[in-house]
TrEMBL record, chain A:
This is Carbohydrate ABC transporter permease. The chain crosses the membrane at residues 29-54, 98-117, 129-150, 162-183, 204-226, 266-283. Keywords: Cell membrane, Membrane, Transmembrane, Transmembrane helix, Transport. InterPro entries: MetI-like, MetI-like_sf. Residues 94-283 form the ABC transmembrane type-1 domain. It is found in: Cell membrane. It comes from Cryobacterium gelidum. GO terms for biological process: transmembrane transport. The keyword Heme does not apply. GO terms for cellular component: plasma membrane. Pfam families: BPD_transp_1. SUPFAM superfamilies: MetI-like. Belongs to the binding-protein-dependent transport system permease family. It is a multi-pass membrane protein.
Automatic annotation (TrEMBL), chain B:
This is Sugar ABC transporter permease. Residues 93-305 form the ABC transmembrane type-1 domain. The keyword Secreted does not apply. Keywords: Cell membrane, Membrane, Transmembrane, Transmembrane helix, Transport. It comes from the Bacteria. The lineage of its organism: Bacteria, Bacillati, Actinomycetota, Actinomycetes, Micrococcales. Belongs to the binding-protein-dependent transport system permease family. Its main location: membrane.
Length: 299, 314
């Protein structure tokens, strides 16, 4: 239902940081105040990151000593990072996250795009009510399904496997809706002409629809990727083997395992946060656009 | 999106469209085959991992099923009547509702304030966006590690900062009065960036002329904010409130990771209770029943907002 609330694409275009907006020509007292408020807010929002970085660069002794200090007595050191990379399963978890997230993203986008194309263009019987069913399923909270899904995974022998993590996460009815809306806008004449020339539906889809839909496919991919990369509840339930855990699940176990290793905990958290932040810095525009395009449909 | 109108690579002649053949029964059958072929991959995962567990969970809610497989027999409505008389279930519902109220208000207002301020066009555009949105990209376990450390009673930065103003240290996550508020603060920090982006997109869509006209009429910046910006944002605000309520009702990750529902159940949410009953208490049947009560509430809230929006529009 919330998927009906999609913003028109022109709004989305404008969500991207725009270069047209320029600095106000005159510096009034009120803009100084506004700037100050913004600066304080931004500092507050960055502080947890900065504090985590500072803590991760301390020795455990310094991190665990009072009073709280920004400049440790024995200086800054990367020993916590070396220890975390050398001893823990961090790299394994990262690899697991990368593999499962890429698999989830690829499968979700492919099956959703094919289904959306069928709903948008192919006049098969039952199309209408099946589409209604898919849209209605957006309302189902995944949290409600954890018990029977876990049971199902036990029955299918998929507990503690990659497929057990991946398969229940590839259903994205909201993304089917978003993609169908987009395909609906593509002029049908382009495809009709190709059909007259004898091209198959799959060929048309691949050679005409997919190239025209690159922006929306990218947006959906980004949204699915971020969601899957950070998903906690399902991977947490379906994995017990530490070597199969994804990053968010594995990270959750270190708190108890390492106890009071504050610097190491922060080093782990920073390293775990890094991949997505780097990806964000590189693709900032596309990600903001992607969130604004598909975010409303995806919630 | 301008990309859409770009000519496709396939060579097609526009004239042929006019000669499109009328639909034949045979082509109709073909459409069925092709349509289902396109739908098949999605349909398979949809039925296997959404419809099946949904139905199975409903069935389980009428059984005494445990994780070990014992007690799988039908028990009628026993699980549901037990849930309705279960003080822990009601407490978790109350906590969830309280969390939803406490988190939705700042998640809307702070996001609005951020978006309005950033939209003024002051220098440093990318750093504001980065600062406010970056936490949204973090996994819940990273957020929890950060904030459990910040809230540490002896070594945490939060107590060090409040101490500067003479406040006595608080054990934020272990204190019944503060634990929920601490989790709300963390949640606002973590997810406000999403609402901020939605507001920013909506703000940039308000026609500049409206402000120019108001300025000519002598309206100051504050006046413009309240008589143009906020009314123009009303649909966006409604949307954000709805999405936020639905998201907050499903809270689990940060609560489970930061307090484990404690102290003494003061922060245990409904989803966490479902999880605990199922995976700690091994009572799958009972857990499914609570899941379905929770599901019913989500459906009611969703339908209510849908009707409400329909009413507001007409």
């Amino acid at each position: 239902m919330t998927a009906q609330l999609l913003v028109p694409s022109d709004i989305v275009e404008r969500a991207v940081p725009s270069r047209r907006r320029t600095v106000p020509t005159r510096t009034s007292a009120s803009s100084v105040v506004a700037f100050a408020i913004l600066a304080v807010l931004a500092l507050g929002w960055l502080l947890p990151f900065v504090w985590a970085v500072v803590t991760s660069l301390k020795t455990e002794t310094d991190a665990g000593s009072t009073p709280v200090s920004w400049f440790p007595e024995s200086g800054f050191t990367i020993v916590a990072y070396l220890k975390v990379l050398g001893e823990g399963n961090l790299l394994t978890w990262t690899a697991n996250s990368l593999f499962t997230t890429v698999a989830i993203t690829v499968i979700t986008v492919v099956v959703s795009a094919l289904a959306a194309y069928a709903f948008s263009r192919i006049d098969f019987s039952g199309r209408r009510w099946i589409f209604v069913l898919v849209i209605a399923s957006i309302i189902i909270p995944p949290q409600v399904l954890i018990i029977p899904l876990f049971y199902q995974m036990l029955a299918l022998n998929l507990v503690d496997t990659y497929w057990g993590i991946i398969l229940p996460q590839v259903i994205a009815p909201a993304m089917v809706f978003v993609l169908k809306k987009f395909f609906d806008q593509i002029p049908i004449e382009l495809e009709d002409a190709a059909r007259m020339d004898g091209a198959s539906r799959l060929r048309i889809f691949w050679l005409i629809v997919v190239p025209l839909s690159r922006p929306i496919l990218a947006a959906v991919s980004i949204f699915v990727f971020i969601g899957a990369w950070n998903n906690f509840l399902w991977p947490f339930i379906v994995t017990n083997n530490s070597l199969l855990m994804t990053l968010p699940v594995g990270l959750q176990t270190v708190k108890s395992a390492y106890g009071v290793q504050y610097a190491e905990n922060m080093a782990m958290a920073i390293l775990a946060a890094l991949p997505l932040i780097v990806v964000f810095l590189i693709f900032q525009r596309q990600i903001i656009k992607g969130i604004a395009t598909t975010g409303l449909g995806g919630q | 999106m301008t990309e859409v109108v770009a000519p496709p690579r396939a060579e097609v002649s526009v004239q042929t469209i006019a000669n499109a053949a009328p639909r034949m029964p045979r082509s109709r059958r073909r459409e069925n085959t092709v349509g289902w072929a396109f739908l098949a991959p999605f349909a398979v995962v949809f039925v296997l991992f959404l419809v099946t567990p949904l139905a199975w969970g409903f069935y389980l809610s009428f059984t005494g099923q445990s994780l070990t497989g014992a007690g799988g027999g039908l028990v009628g409505f026993a699980n549901y009547s037990e849930a309705l008389g279960d003080p822990d279930m009601w407490r978790s519902m109350g906590n969830t509702l309280w969390f939803t109220v406490l988190s939705t208000v700042p998640l809307v207002l702070v996001a609005l304030a951020m978006a309005v301020l950033v939209n003024l066009g002051l220098p440093g555009q990318w750093i504001w966006r980065l600062a406010f949105f970056m936490p949204y990209l973090l996994a819940s376990s990273v957020v929890s590690l950060f904030w459990v450390w910040l809230y540490n009673p002896q070594l945490g930065l939060v107590n060090a900062l409040t101490g500067l103003f003479g406040a006595t240290p608080v054990a934020w996550l272990q204190d019944t009065d503060w634990a929920m508020i601490a989790i709300v603060v963390t949640t606002v920090w973590w997810t406000v960036g999403f609402n901020f982006l939605l507001y920013l997109a909506a703000l940039q869509n308000i026609p500049e002329q409206q402000y120019e006209a108001a300025a000519l009429d002598g309206a100051g910046k504050w006046r413009q904010l309240f008589s143009i910006t906020i009314p123009q944002l009303a649909p966006t605000t409604m949307l954000i409130v709805i999405l936020q309520v639905l998201a907050s009702l499903k809270v689990f990750d940060q609560v489970y990771q930061m307090t484990g529902g404690g102290p003494g159940g003061a922060t245990r949410s409904t989803v966490e209770y479902i999880f605990e009953v199922g995976f700690t208490g091994y009572r799958f049947g009972y857990s499914s029943a609570i899941s379905y009560i929770f599901f019913a509430i989500i459906v009611i809230v969703s339908i209510a907002q849908f009707v409400f929006r329909k009413g507001a529009r007409s």
